[in-house]
Amino acid sequence: MRIVRGSVTVETALGLPVLLMMLLTFVELCFMTFAVTSADYALAAAVAETKRTNTANEEQTEAFKNQVMVSLNNNTFNLLMNRTVESTYNADVLFIDNLDDLRECSENHSDIETCSGISSDAYNKPIAIYRLEYDYTPSLSFILPSISIKKEIIAIQESQRCKYKYGGSCE
Description:
Layout: H1 7-53, H2 59-74, E1 84-96, H3 99-108, E2 118-119, E3 127-136, E4 147-156
Antiparallel strand pairs: 1-2, 1-3, 3-4
């Protein structure tokens, strides 16, 4: 019988770094999922609050930007602010005339800002696209790159809801 000494040490030295890297990558994936889900919640809360409290005017975009930051700071997302670059937050609202313009834009254009019928003016435009963009920087930045995350919510403006009643108008 042959005596083998040190084989467990060699196997541990080769396997432990791989196991640790897999474990740290899994933990980072969990943090990223939590950050994205928290941002989704904050975006939805900001959209709901902005729709309820504002009429269709030019201040709606600023109110939405402020509400996004309030929502991000009010929930558990602020635990992860060191993982997201706050200076990269970009919240924006675009408005659309009707469903046909939205359908044409989604079928024919890759960038929504180049579509016809899209503007930042909210007057007499019942459909709004609320957008949030930010960068997520992982803790393992030496392995994983920074990730740009973009979210959009399409909503009917509460002040313009009458346009979608049967035979309705906003007069």
